[in-house]
Design brief:
- With 72 residues, this protein is mainly beta.
- It has a domain of 43 residues.
- 0% of the residues lie in helices and 32% in strands.
- The mean pLDDT is 77.
- Bound molecules: zinc ion.
């Protein structure tokens, strides 16, 4: 019987290789333009601090799945 533990040559658990995130993405939400600091819109459900992801046509909260459509 083959041992289930121990490093074999193959990773067969189907885990995707995780890329290291160098910097927290949170900081990308803060933009300094001139002497103004603008922030991305945050989730009205989760409150300040939980930012909505920016998509082309909508903003999306990854925490509570709140979606807000952007009017153009
Ligand atoms: Zn939310």
């Amino acid at each position: 019987m083959a041992s289930l533990e121990g490093g074999s040559s193959k990773d067969r658990k189907g885990k995707k290789p995780h890329k290291n995130k160098p910097v927290s993405k949170k900081y990308a939400h803060y933009k300094v333009s001139g002497d103004k600091i603008t922030r991305d819109k945050y989730c009205p459900r989760c409150g300040a601090g939980i930012f909505l992801a920016n998509h082309k046509t909508r903003l999306y909260c990854g925490k509570c799945k709140y979606t807000e459509f952007i009017k153009k």
